[in-house]
Every structure is written in C-alpha cells, then in structure tokens.
Write a structure and sequence with these properties.
P-loop_NTPase, 5-stranded parallel sheet, 7-stranded mixed sheet, single chain, ADP binding
C-alpha cells in the first residue's frame, strides 16, 4: 500500500508499506472530476499542480497533520491504474484500507459555507440543504467509504468541518436510507444480502461494472475484475460468490458445533456495563478508532491514560456499546478496579453473568474459575473493561494466605480483549505491556468542548461558550460540572454570569468543588473536579513526597513554558518549603529529579513541550494544586520558595541578559499581577520586581515597568534604609521609566527624591 507524506513546501512523496506493518494514516473520500484529478504518474513526475485535484490532496495532508497523522492516502494518485493487476488488488482491498484508516475526511466540493460564518454548527441553515443534496451521496464507491471507517468527518469546499458520521447520522440516514445501526458500526454481515443491495440501488458509477465491484468489501468477498462483462453479469458473479460463501460458512458452523453440548443450554453473550449509553456523547477525534485498532487484534490490549475528569471512562462506555452493537455475540464485562474489594465483587458478578457458581467464602476459587472461563475459546469472544486502575491492586485471601494480583487475573487469549482506564501511566504500562498500546486522553479540542457544553445546556443561551470552555481548559468533567450548576440555578444563571463567578481563585475553587450528578460516572468516584484530582495529589504525596514537592513548586509558574533550570530549585537546601505537610524533611538522596518528573507525567499532571527542556500544566491543575496547598496550610511557604528561587535567577534587564529575562518574565508577570498576601514584603520580592521592571522598561513595556518598580521601591524603603544603594537604584529606574512614559512632572519629582537620598 502506498501512502503520501507531506514534504517541505507544497510537495508530497509516496512511500510503499507492507500491509501487515502500516503506520496510522488518514484517507480521503471525494467525488472525481474528469480531467482534474492527479494521477499516480503525474504525482511521481511532480506535474499537475494546477489541477483542482491537487487542492484536495493538499487539504487531506494538512488536515492529517492537524490530527497528528504523518501519512495519508488518496485514491486518485496512490494507485497506479495503468496496471490491471494493481487496480484489481486495490479494489479488492479498498474496504479494508478505509476500515484501517485512523481518519476518513469527506471533501464535499459542492457544499459551500459563507466566509463570514465562523460557527458552522450554529448556522447549519447555510449549508445543510447543500449537504443533503451533495453528489457524494449518489456515487457507488462512496458507500463503502461511509461504512468502513470508524471515524468519518465531513468538510465543505472551504475546508470547514461540518460534522462527523456520528453527529450527522440522522441526516445521513435520511439521505441514504442506510440504517443508523450500520452507521454506528454494527457488523455489516448482520444485515441481509437484499438489504445491503438496496443501499446501492439509487447510486451510480461511471463504469457500469463498478456498481457490483464497489460492493465487494461490504459483503466481505473477493473476486477478479472483468471490465467489459457488463453490470448484469458482474452482479450475477457477485451473487454466486455470496451463495458459495454462505454454504462454506454453514459447513464451518456445523463443524464447530459438532461434539459440543446442546447449544440451547449455553447462555447468550451479554453485557454488564453498569452505565447507560450517553445520547449526547461527543466524538473525541480518532480515540475510539485507536482503541478499536488495538482491541481488535488477537489478545488485544489498550489503556486509556489521563488525569481524572478527562473522559476516559466515558470513552470506554461508548466503546463497549459500539462493540455490543456491531458484535452481539461478544461478551462485554465491566470491572471496577479502584480497590481489591471492588475487583473481587466484579469477578463475582462475571461468574454470575456467565452461569458459574460464585463462592463468596472462597475468593481465590471464584477468581480462578472466572479466569479459566475467560481462557476457554469455546465460550466465545469477550471484551473486558477494567476501570480506574490507579494503584497496584492485590486481593489478599486470609484463609489460603495467598495474594492475587490484578495482572495475574487478566488472561492473554486470542478471543479476548482488555481495555484499561487509569490515571497512572506506570500502572497501565505494567498491564498492557507495550508503550504503543497506551492511549493518552488529553483535554478536548475547542470544538469538542463547545459541543459538550451545548449538549449539557440544552436550550439555554450559548453566548460566551468558547470563553468558558477555554477558562475550564476544555476538561470534560469541569464543563459538565459548570453546565449542571448553570442548569440548576435556571434563569438566574447563564454562561456569562458563570464566567464572572470564576474571576478569583476563591470563586473558582468554590464552584469547582461543587458536585454534578452524572449517571455515567462510577458512584464511588467524586463528581467534583477538584476533589477528583486531590485523590491523585494525596496518593503522590504518600508514595513519592519529593514529586509532590515538585508539583507544589510548579503550581506558581505561568502554566506554559516552565523552564527546567528553574524547577530544579525545588530541592534548594535552604528553602523553608522543604518540609512537607507532615513535617518531614527530605534528604538529598531521596530526591531524583527525573523520577519525580516521570511520576508527575505518569499522572498527566505535567507534560514536556516539544523543546524537551520546558514543561507545561493545565491551568485547572495548577488551581487544584494551589487549593490543595491551601488546605494543608503550606501555600504561603511555597509562595516564598518560588519568589526566592526566581529572585536568584532573574538577572538585571540589560541587553546581555535579555534571553534569560524573556524566558522568566511571563512567570514573574503572572505572580506580580495577583494581589496576594503570601508574597510579603521581603528583600527577594523587591529584587525580583526591580529586575523584572528593569527588563520591562528596556522592552518598552512602560506600564508594567512602572508598576513593578514602584512596588520594588516601596518595599525597599520599608525593609532597607532609604539611602541604601538598592533603594536608590529602584528610585532612579522609576524616574527614568516615568520620563519615557511622558509623565515629566512625576519623573522630575522622583529624580529630585533620588538626588536628595543620594546626597544624604
């Protein structure tokens, strides 16, 4: 299979892969325009860039890059159609190629959105009629391109995202008459041959035989292409192929059931997922596709890893329902694994579900009986979702004096798959085995977050929605919590009023501590975003105090571009914050910077930037950390540690120091703008304000310079003598800043004061 990759500038390169070792890729679905598509030979020769088809290729490549995909596939130029063998192989493989794609982008050249429309969903009226009448819905080949991929996204001619196969499923169903169940991923083999044939009835193909050939993947059959045989004969061969496949399946089924107990006595596969499906589920890019790619392999395993409230369990719930929908013969088991008692109860529930005798007084027997059942291939396929595995879970059985670990209970069988959700990447890695099977669940995109807020607010005004989700860092639980609060207060509360409530740390903490009822969250898990996160903080503090120390220190920086050389100060020997909340003091040998960073990254509390030597945090994570410090009465102590370290590192504002000043200035600015009694009037705070103000003056940031230097002068007059050299320096700098600001009278007064202090 050939895949495209963007090169520098406007060029692409073709790379050939073995189909057993394909990387993640995006795929384009579109309608052809005669004479305007880029062929394989033209792409290789670097010609045809003036054709309309080149725009579509560039769109697909750029969109794939935005979704983090390096490779993409476009049918017009990735297949050498001049070779009949390659064309035949490609058409027989096409359904699988679309099925394996991480993303499918549908480019609708006949659907246009006015340039002035910025919110496509709000102004659907501008494009919905064109969408329903698009030529894309009338072509034969686009049927499999709609059904095969798990993630299908629709775009206008301008490249504006109209929605996905999920968000537009009702409109697509009405236009195509394809059942919603098929659009949601139910196995196509569960629809009758005649029903699947009906889906193509109103569609057209340029070549008559293609009307039969475009159904090969939908029926899961392979046959040689004979162009020139005519549509009727092609359909006749397809029918014969389907009849032969049906008879072969019947023989296999008879062979499989012979010698087994009466099938009527076996329980039908079912699901014990304890949550209802979310009708307002917001599709999260290609996350569900990536889960399915891993869990569809023999003995497949995947782990969703992210901070609390990022939506890991919601993704697992949606995936569970999709598996059951497309494969009713697959068992789906939900296992709560937050502690040993819940794990034991979950296995007892599975034993009951599959018809085994649960033995409450013999936990090991029940656990091992269930494990043996899972290993038995004759019991059919199964998917197990192990939720909230944040610690090493071990069941201790007193009677047998035996310890049973969670890892030992999860069999590796070809007919079973396991999906894990965890806040702890280290724990998840120990259960899935491979780094590539860990799927990071980050905050939502802006569009996803706005959609989630809108779904939860119902008919309420969405004014200010973008600002609100941005303020909440696009974190799902925080958004749901905010929507619940707004709904609860009815007409007395709106999105804009809620934003006003979030202006101070105290108000933010008050609102984010409130719980929101969510029937799709574990009843033993907190629905308050701050309480959810403090569980992680407490765990880290207990297991790795020095990592909690680092997190505390980092919470006072600007959340982006936190330099590594600064945060290494968290181990300063003279820092009064070296004592943790229990009064212990860290020994130097207990501190390992790389290990502490690894712990915080494992819990998704911090992440490294592409530069590698800078870190960043979510703003709400910083808020939660500060609230946590306040609850342990250590916030003031940590504030002073931060000021001391920053004062030590921030140089004066002269030219030679500008690179370092530029790196540190945003972190000083975020603290200087806050009115907080924790800073106090100290020599270090005055030094930091003076040097930062010096740099601001040199950069022409006169208002900020005046504010900082004024504060520095006030503190120095109080903690030092008025004629101290440092005080004179701040006074002189302030006078110069006032001159540059055009405040000549104030500048003259300040310079006279400086001169008087100097003479004294």
């Amino acid at each position: 299979m050939r895949l495209l990759r963007l090169k520098s500038g406007d060029d692409f390169e073709l790379i050939t892969f073995n189909t057993d070792d394909l990387p993640s890729y995006a795929i384009l679905s579109h309608t052809w325009t005669d004479g305007e598509e880029i062929t394989y030979n033209e792409l290789v020769a670097g010609t045809g860039k003036d054709k309309a088809g080149y725009t579509k290729i560039r769109f697909c490549g750029e969109r794939a890059a935005q979704d983090g995909l390096q490779y993409f596939w476009v049918d017009t130029c990735c297949i050498n159609k001049s070779t009949s063998d390659e064309l035949s192989m490609a058409i027989n493989s096409m359904f699988r190629w679309y099925q394996r794609a991480s993303k499918c982008y549908v480019y609708m050249a006949d659907v246009q959105v006015p340039e002035e429309v910025t919110d496509v969903q709000v102004f659907r009226i501008t494009w919905e009629d064109a969408f329903r009448g698009s030529r894309w819905f009338t072509r034969g080949w686009t049927l499999q391109e709609l059904l095969a991929p798990a993630s299908v996204e629709f775009f206008s001619k301008e490249g504006k995202r109209l929605g996905s196969k999920i968000s537009l499923e009702q409109e697509i169903h009405e236009v195509t008459q394809v059942p919603v169940r098929a659009l949601q991923g139910q196995r196509l083999s569960e629809f009758s041959v005649d029903e699947r044939m009906s889906w193509i009835a109103r569609r057209r193909t340029t070549v008559k035989e293609d009307k039969a050939y475009c159904l090969l993947g939908i029926f899961g059959v392979f046959m040689p292409l004979i162009y020139g045989e005519g549509e009727e004969h092609a359909y006749l061969r397809l029918r014969r192929k389907l009849l032969k496949s049906s008879k072969e399946k019947e023989v296999r089924d008879n062979d499989h059931t012979s010698g087994l107990p009466d099938q009527s006595t076996q329980l039908r596969p079912s699901s014990n997922v304890p949550f209802r499906r979310d009708d307002d589920f917001v599709d999260r890019g290609d996350l569900l596709t990536r889960i399915d790619q891993r869990c569809s392999r023999p003995a497949g395993r995947a782990a969703l890893v992210g901070f609390g409230g990022f939506g890991k369990s919601q993704l697992a719930i949606e995936y569970a329902y999709r598996v059951r929908q497309r494969s009713p013969d697959t068992w789906v088991f939900w296992v709560h694994a937050s502690n040993s008692a819940r794990l034991e109860a979950a296995f007892s529930n599975i034993a009951e579900k599959v018809g085994l005798s649960s033995q409450p007084d013999a936990a090991v027997d029940t656990l091992q009986v269930v494990r043996r059942w899972l290993c038995n291939e004759s019991n059919g396929r199964w998917l197990m979702i192990v939720d909230n595995v944040d610690t090493d879970v071990v069941i201790e059985v007193q009677k047998e004096k035996e310890k049973v670990s969670l890892a030992s209970l999860l069999p590796q069988t070809d007919h079973g798959a396991i999906l894990i959700t965890s806040r702890n990447a280290d724990i998840a890695r120990s259960l899935v085995g491979r780094e590539k099977d860990i799927i990071a669940v980050e905050a939502m995109s802006d569009d996803e977050a706005v959609q989630l807020l809108g779904n939860n607010l119902g008919d309420k005004s969405k004014d200010g929605a973008i600002r609100l989700v941005s303020t909440l860092d696009c974190i799902p639980l925080a958004i749901v919590q905010a929507a619940a609060y707004i709904n609860r207060l009815g007409p007395r509360m709106s999105v804009t009023k809620y934003l006003e409530e979030l202006k101070t740390i105290e108000k933010q903490a008050h609102l984010l501590y409130k719980t929101a009822i969510d029937l799709r969250r574990d009843e033993q898990a907190s629905n308050s975003v701050l309480m959810t996160w403090q569980i992680s903080f407490d765990y880290i503090c207990q297991k790795r105090p020095s990592a909690a120390y680092l997190l505390s220190f980092m919470s006072f920086f600007n959340r982006q571009g936190i330099p590594e050389f600064m945060i290494r100060h968290y181990t300063d020997k003279d820092s009064e914050g070296q004592n943790d909340s229990s009064g212990r003091r860290f020994a130097e040998e207990d501190v390992d910077f790389e290990e502490d960073v690894a712990v915080l990254r494992a819990f998704s509390l911090v992440r490294t930037t592409q530069r590698g030597y800078e870190f960043e945090m979510h703003g709400l994570v910083q808020l939660a950390t500060r609230v946590w410090l306040r609850s342990t009465d250590t916030e003031r102590k940590w504030y002073r540690v931060f000021i001391q370290a920053m004062a030590q590192e921030f140089p004066d504002g002269e030219y030679a120091n500008w690179p370092k000043c530029q790196t540190l200035f945003p972190h000083v600015l975020s603290v200087a703008e806050q009115e907080d009694s924790n800073k106090g009037k100290t020599y270090e705070w005055a030094l930091l304000l003076n040097n930062a103000g010096w740099y601001a003056w040199r950069q022409g940031l006169l208002a900020q310079a005046e504010d900082m230097v004024s504060k520095a002068l006030e503190i120095r007059k109080e903690v030092l003598d008025a004629d101290n050299l440092s005080t004179l320096l701040s006074s002189s700098l302030l006078g110069t800043t006032l001159v540059d600001s055009g405040k000549y009278e104030a500048a003259e007064s300040m310079h006279r004061q400086t001169l008087a202090m100097y003479e004294k």
